Amino acid sequence: MLITGIKSKPVYAPLHADARGRYHLMLGHGAGGVALLRVLKELEETAPAALGATRVLYLPRPMIGNASASVAITPESGAADAPADPLAELEALALAELKLFASVPELLTDFRALLERSLMGTRLYVAGPESFIGLAMKIALEFNLNKDEIRAEELGSLARRVYCIHCRATAEEVRTNIVRCGGCGRWLLVRDHYSRRLAAYMGVMADAEAPGELPEIREVFV
């Protein structure tokens, strides 16, 4: 069965703007764009000049264009190919940059590059599914960002990223309590134990004591 109540399971609070930050870096995935827009409007009201020091990296849903394409939108470039809301409102803001992506790996690659040249006083905001937040946090921790510099809000799918403790393979977008490992082929029980270092929940062999006897497979992370 699932093991619940484990303290390692992340808990995320709603995002709020931090006007003390000198620079603002925002990452959004799907419904996370709504949370980022809320924060940007807070900044617009309390510290409008901060928008000019804000960069937004966003993966909308549905995916836009080619699966390997990304589109940079700056105040100078216009927004002729912009997808639907909340992008329409995001584009109307005087941001330093709004960059759209078609895949999480591309977005995270740009995120890493921005962190490599980020300056003191940068605030990080991440909004979207938990698996997306976990991957972004993993990179942020590599750059030693402090807890008071990072904010995250969970929105969208509850699908999990699962790490097989037997072969170290990782399964993405897991929605069921039992999943077959793509690395070693074992059936894994998805536990609530979460590793921030791996940005994944632990998966342990589900039929170790009685080979072939599996619990009912149910969709629980929707």
- Into how many domains do the coordinates divide? 2
Shape: elongated
Which structural class best describes the helix and strand composition? alpha/beta
Specify the CATH architecture of the largest domain: 3-Layer(aba) Sandwich
- Name of the top-level CATH class of the largest domain: Alpha Beta
User: Approximately what portion of the residues adopt beta-strand conformation?
Assistant: 25-35%
CATH-defined superfamily of the largest domain: Nucleotide-binding domain of ferredoxin-NADP reductase (FNR) module
Main sheet: strands, sense, barrel:
6 strands, mixed
Average pLDDT works out at 86
Structure commentary:
The protein is an alpha/beta fold and 222 residues long. It has helices at residues 32-46, 87-91, 104-116, 130-142; strands spanning 23-29, 54-59, 70-73, 97-101, 122-128, 150-154, 160-164, 170-174, 178-180, 187-195, 200-205. The strands form two sheets. The protein has a six-stranded mixed β-sheet with strand order 3-4-2-1-5-6. Strands 8-7-11-10-9 form a five-stranded mixed β-sheet.
Fold blueprint:
Elements: E1 23-29, H1 32-46, E2 54-59, E3 70-73, H2 87-91, E4 97-101, H3 104-116, E5 122-128, H4 130-142, E6 150-154, E7 160-164, E8 170-174, E9 178-180, E10 187-195, E11 200-205
Parallel strand pairs: 1-2, 1-5, 2-4, 5-6, 7-11
Antiparallel strand pairs: 3-4, 7-8, 9-10, 10-11
Short description:
By secondary structure, the protein is an alpha/beta fold. It has helices at residues 32-46, 87-91, 104-116, 130-142, and strands spanning 23-29, 54-59, 70-73, 97-101, 122-128, 150-154, 160-164, 170-174, 178-180, 187-195, 200-205.
